[in-house]
Design goal:
Belongs to the EXORDIUM family. By secondary structure, this protein is of the alpha/beta class. About 20% of the residues lie in helices and about 20% in strands. A 6-stranded mixed sheet has the order 1-8-9-6-3-4, with helices on both faces. A two-stranded antiparallel sheet has the order 2-10. Strands 5-7 form a two-stranded parallel ribbon. The radius of gyration is 20 Å and the shape is globular.
Length: about 350
């Protein structure tokens, strides 16, 4: 508006006020996020090398993870994937197998299913446990970058809307036990990617999508920032002398994504609407069950040390088995044990 021009507005209605509040929180407060290798990449590299991280394996009386009475995913969980951008068939197979391995009992120990067991001990207000059953339900490809190669947090919701309202083979609508996973290829930049996050989860706004759906976004960092989001299969420049590990599936970008996907799925199951399980007093900035164990993959993990891992005959590093493949996935906080744990823990 030009100087001296005054535009009068009618008083906003209650639904309009609620929509504005949600929009403000989404844009300025941030989503529940996950990124690696450490929460603050500006931290002094010397501190990292000597274990100066606040994330550690041991139990702590300072961690107060509480249930805030919101819903958790107690029914059979379905994962619906949106493949945004250009994806290789082999890359999709790796991610599909990880998701399908979560409920599989066929993998040898330590297994992805054993990792998910920590999640299933979390309950809702009725005492019902989070479901052991999680499977891949439907997939939608957006290989023509319908919303461009630069996405904001709000345009991510528009991508999801396009997938659930498509004229041909739309993704199913399942607000109660569905998870919507938006995966972006290595040539797509998402708001705050690399600088602050490798992935985040939230829920869609009915004003944009038409439904309240728990969703997560995870990006392939292979071209943009592998040292940040594909760690430890790529190493940040600010940690001199640290060598990357060999990825178990021969694709550092995808193997890095796997742990972030696991991080987000675990938090979606325990905190789908950001009002269930988290530490701290502010739901706008929740510290969730995967945040508490960031960078920990084995016994003794903390700081720049991943913990005790497994080495394959081919020299690849992993910490759990899927149906046919191996994966490296970060540990999760157990509210029963009050420390980070995983299926490859030496005391199990």
């Amino acid at each position: 508006m030009g100087q001296g021009c005054v535009r009068r507005f009618s008083a906003p209605t209650l639904p309009m006020l609620l929509a504005l509040i949600l929009l403000f929180l989404h844009l300025f407060a941030g989503n529940a996020v996950a990124w690696r290798p450490w929460p603050n990449h500006n931290v002094n590299a010397t501190d990292l090398q000597f274990g100066g991280s606040k994330k550690y394996e041991g139990s702590s009386e300072f961690v107060h993870l509480r249930y805030h009475m919101g819903p958790v995913l107690t029914e059979n969980i379905t994962v619906n994937i949106i493949w945004y951008g250009t994806w290789q068939r082999a890359q999709k197979k790796i991610i599909r197998e990880f998701i399908n391995s979560i409920s599989s009992r066929d993998a040898k120990r330590p297994s992805v299913a054993g990792w998910w067991r920590t999640v299933t001990f979390y309950t809702d207000q009725t005492g019902a446990n989070i479901s052991r059953s999680l499977h891949l339900a439907a997939e939608k490809s957006d290989r023509f970058y319908s919303h461009g190669k630069k996405l904001t947090r709000l345009s991510i919701q528009s991508v999801i809307k396009s997938a659930v309202t498509a004229k041909t083979k739309p993704l199913p609508i399942n607000p109660k036990s569905g998870i919507y996973l938006l995966l972006t290829s290595d040539d797509v930049y998402v708001q705050d990617f690399c600088g602050q996050v490798c992935g985040f989860h939230y829920f869609t706004f009915p004003s944009i999508v038409g439904y309240t759906l728990p969703y997560a976004w995870v990006g392939n960092s292979a071209k943009l920032c592998p040292g940040m989001c594909a760690y430890p299969f790529a190493v940040p420049d600010y940690i001199p002398g640290l060598k990357p590990l060999k990825s178990p599936n021969g694709d550092a970008g995808i193997d890095g994504m796997i742990s972030v996907i696991g991080h987000e799925i675990a938090e979606l199951a325990t905190n789908p609407l950001v009002n269930a399980w988290y530490a701290g007093t502010d739901p706008v900035f929740p510290v969730e069950i995967a945040d508490l164990c960031e960078g920990i993959y084995g016994t003794g993990g903390g700081g720049s040390y991943t913990g005790q891992l497994l080495d394959g005959e081919d020299g690849a590093t992993y910490n759990m088995n899927g149906i046919r493949r191996r994966f490296l996935v970060q540990w999760l906080w157990s509210h029963v044990l009050s420390y980070c744990t995983g299926p490859n823990a030496l005391d199990q």
